[in-house]
Write a structure and sequence with these properties.
The complex is a heterodimer of chains A (109) and B (459).
Chain A: H1 2-9, H2 13-33, H3 37-62, H4 66-96
Helix pairs in contact in A: 2-3, 3-4
Chain B: H1 2-19, H2 23-43, H3 61-80, H4 85-88, H5 93-111, H6 115-133, H7 140-171, H8 176-185, H9 192-209, H10 217-224, H11 227-253, H12 257-280, H13 285-305, H14 311-340, H15 351-354, H16 356-370, H17 376-390, H18 394-420, H19 432-450, H20 453-456
Helix pairs in contact in B: 1-2, 1-5, 2-3, 3-5, 3-11, 3-14, 5-6, 5-11, 6-7, 6-11, 7-9, 7-10, 8-11, 9-11, 9-12, 10-11, 10-13, 11-13, 11-14, 12-13, 12-18, 13-14, 13-17, 13-18, 14-16, 14-17, 14-19, 16-18, 16-19, 17-19
The chains are: A mainly alpha (109), B mainly alpha (459).
Catalytic activity (chain A): a quinone + NADH + 5 H(+)(in) = a quinol + NAD(+) + 4 H(+)(out)
GO molecular function (chain A): NADH dehydrogenase (quinone) (non-electrogenic) activity; quinone binding
Membrane topology (chain A): Multi-pass membrane protein
Chain lengths: 109, 459
Amino acid sequence: MENITSTIQAVPLNHYILLSAIIFTIGVIGVLVRRNAIIIFMSVELMLNAVNLLLAAFSSYSGDASGQVFVFFIMALAAAEVAVGLAIIVMVYRNTSSIDINILNRLKW
Amino acid sequence: MSTLIVISILAIVVLYLGLFKAKQALLPISVLGLVAALALAIMEWNSNAAPIFSGMMHFDNFAVAFSSICIITTILVFLLSKNYFEKISDNVAEYYTLILFALSGIIVMVSYHNLSMLFVGLEIMSVSLYILAGIKRKDFASNEAALKYFLMGAFSTGFLLFGIALIYGASKSFDLAVIAQYVIDRPTGIDPIFYVGLVLMIVGLCFKVGAAPFHFWTPDVYEGAPTLITAFMSTVVKIAGFAAFLRLFSICFAPLQDFWMPTLLVITILTLFVGNITALYQTNFKRMLAFSSISHAGYMLFAIVALGAASTNAIFIYAAAYAVSSITAFAVLMLVKAKTGSENFEDFNGLAKSNPFLAFALTVAMLSFAGIPLTAGFIGKFFVFNAALAQYHTWLVAIAVVNAIIGVFYYFKVIVAMYFKDNQTKQIATPAYFNFVLGVSLIITLVLGIYPSFITNLF
């Protein structure tokens, strides 16, 4: 554990923050730009993993384990979301034979 | 605390009842269990509870009040569900179970004392709702609602989590009390990432409560989901979202009001105008209710913008008034839709002649939405505006009053359709459960409107 902490701390904290922010932004852009439901879903996972990385870095820099515990919460709940989300996508695919979100415009103002 | 345990166990019991084909027992047991949970919650009122589970949750008066209102509204929704789910599918127990699991997430959301519990509660609630929104598997609108709700919900959770991570990075803790202390200890020189985290959390929470400009999923999801689920989402879920919002801001971020107030102010004004003006152009009653729920989110945001001692009370009264009126509106909508098959304003024509009680209940609900005196909605608006005026947001209140007047137009469309337009319709048969729910909502609306002192001094 000591070893891992010192390895993590070999990189300055700001670099972790920048890297996470970049990954998070890629995820946000992916959600906004892509039209395929699965890809959007993957982009959301990318956002969550950016958060995980950031929490792990903060946690080891502050010597406080609760950040790492939070990462486990995020992983578990993201898995639950995946289960429900893929089921919804399969359901949509069965009814429309497509997972392109452009067909989801029947309800519009 | 025992409330949360009772509701979680109740959900599992109901699931097993479905397994053993005890369909008749589902509704009575769910309602009885919720009444027990409500009683347990009220017993903890003024017990000066300390944070429990290593500071994870804190069942204080705030939590008791908002859990009670959520449980009562859920009971009303359950009473409307008699014979409703049977029409959609054969597996009825799952609906009750999912609603109960969502409710247990909501109890966590209103009583958290640690940001990790905010996240866990929010996710328990959201994941159950994703399924509930898409529960009509063959219906395309319901599929679309589920997919949109799911993608937007997961997206907004990402923002919320990034915000939490940055706040953790600055304050080195998820505990609300420690974060509050961090803010108080540093009148100047708070880490800039803390501010970024705060803004990201505002974005995430505004997504969840459906405030403009993050509202675009709301109308589609509310229209596509089954009506009863929409009733649950637009009342209980919205109230829980605001309770979580208010809890976070009043405990942690109150000293930073100068920083976040302008942001929320812009969001509030946008929400009011977008909700009200778009609602004017709707011809579908259910969609109109969706936009009106956006505008009501704007009024409730008011109390957060003018954060102070009176905010909790203002949001509580507004939420109570809004919940009972919404339940009435959705109950009448369900009856009308079962009769005519559509949800447009014309379907309400002549309702006053065929069903005077339904028409009267819906009229009172609409008046309460519009904020006409002698109804609960007026008292709610009064307290919310009063809280804003106490902090000299005079022009903000002026904008809100203009919006309340716009609101009158579209709420009165229904009343006009019911009373002044003729239509040869036969009487709609109302089940006793519906009459009971409508009667209770009507009494609550009028009693709160005439004798508001019941709940105005709770906090």
